[in-house]
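Known limitations

Files may contain more than one protein. Parsers should not assume a single record per file. Below, a two-record file is shown to illustrate correct handling: read the sequence, read the token line, then continue until end of file.
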Amino acid sequence: KKGIVPLVEAAARLNRSYAGRFKLIVVGGLPYPSLARRIAKLGISEAIIFAGPSREPEDYYANCDVFVLPTYYDACSLVVFEAMACGLPPITSAFNGAAGVLTQGKDGYIVSHPPDPIELAQRMEALMAEPARQTMGREAVRTSRRYTIENNHRQMMDVFEAAAAGNF
């Protein structure tokens, strides 16, 4: 569901040009047998680290340059907002509700659905350049500041009050 297969395929494409210059850190699950075989066949075992589940994702955000979640479906993934707040430019799919807050190429990238490994690799490659990555990371932080818990609470209360007053 989270798009690990197209992400691995994209990493294999990047590895052709950037071998030894990037790592893919996967936080959450561990590779299932067929995925592990695919990674080995692509020859990118050295480029991918499966960190397993974590209760402290901020440690990973602090040690990464880009956040990639090519999900097949997410109503609105909180991790995209967390990564943006940490200055990471996100890459996610059009079927992630969080894509609705991104401005393509300004504060993140939105890839097609289903996630295409070629397009995903192109977006990842665009962020291999430090100036582009830093600029987009700063914009991601700015965008994330509009989506705080406080703002969300206030907007929800506005909706509830309007509904209670019959203003719908």
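...continuing to the second record:
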Amino acid sequence: MTIAVNACFLDEHHLTNNGNFIIECFSRLAKKFPQHQFLFISDKGINQQYISANNILPVIAGPKIKNPLLLQYWLNFKVPPILRKHKADVFVSIGNCSLRAKVPQCLVINELSFLHSPQFFTRNWFRFYKKNTPAFLNKATIITTAAQFLKQDIIDTYKMNAGKIDVVYQGVNKIFTQVDWQQKESIKEAYTSGKEYFLYSGEINSNKNLVNLLKAFSFFKKRQKSNMQLVLATTTVFTDVAFKQSLAAYKYRDEIMLLDKLPPETLAAITAAAYALVYPVFYDGFCTPALEAMQVGVPVITSNKAAMPEICGNAALYINPDDFNDIADKMMLLFKDENKRNELIGSGLQQAAKYNWPVTTELLWQAIEKCNTAV
């Protein structure tokens, strides 16, 4: 069997969550099934380190995707000839698929944020997803989602047949490991002058509800009079102008550390040394940062919306993301109640252990096989 993969998320310099999903799953599959061929089709160069087996073949087909029109052109006019040339049996793609390709397609849906937070999309990208997502879902032979929440969201919104959708939970990067007391102290010394800190990990922009997090931190500081810091950390580039302006005018700006373009290993270390993770986002299809924190023994405060309750179970403190007072109350609860904090650490370790890449890979392979035999 020849399995083609939309590898556009495999950036030469930075690996996104979607890119990590591709590498974790298909590196395992390529090694497990050397008799099968895997095509990594991308619009740009692929870092050689991602080609981890002899049966993975990178195929580069420009132009580079910079807007919705180029994405449509790439999917519908550049990808189909490649699939035909290599006699692909299945095409696997995250978030979109080719409407002109003839081969069976496995569509991976890890989020549908444009449905719930359209105000945070540019007009062109919102129109693209609103118009094309129904066509992508109908074109796909098999759909996988990162959570049951997403599956139900698709069923309710697009009236899809539930039998066409498989839930394929994701794993957590193995570089997120616990560190000892001395390592924690060294990390805190390097980033917060030795002070404890709440951590937010993920994209740093307004649509992640970070303004309410700033308000909650202000409330916490006024009530507790502690030297607790707030660290905002991301592996991407901080570009949100509106949030930059909010941060510049923030009263406690000197007690906030903003860290962007972090190597994944550095983010893992900063996460492991945190007092707690505060992840107050309005929407997330899987909430990877919460599981990363749980895996390193850090308690989690997160939203009671989207996939968060499903993925985190009883191992997190839940907040109403619209209410910064509620966020502050949960931060103060963890700060004052060490027993509660230790309880969450223990339950978090157990919860994170439920999600691992070997299981994810096996579930994805089952979906690919179903896709191949469905036609």
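Parsers that stop after the first record will miss the second one. For reference, the second record is described as follows. The two ends are 14 Å apart (CA to CA).
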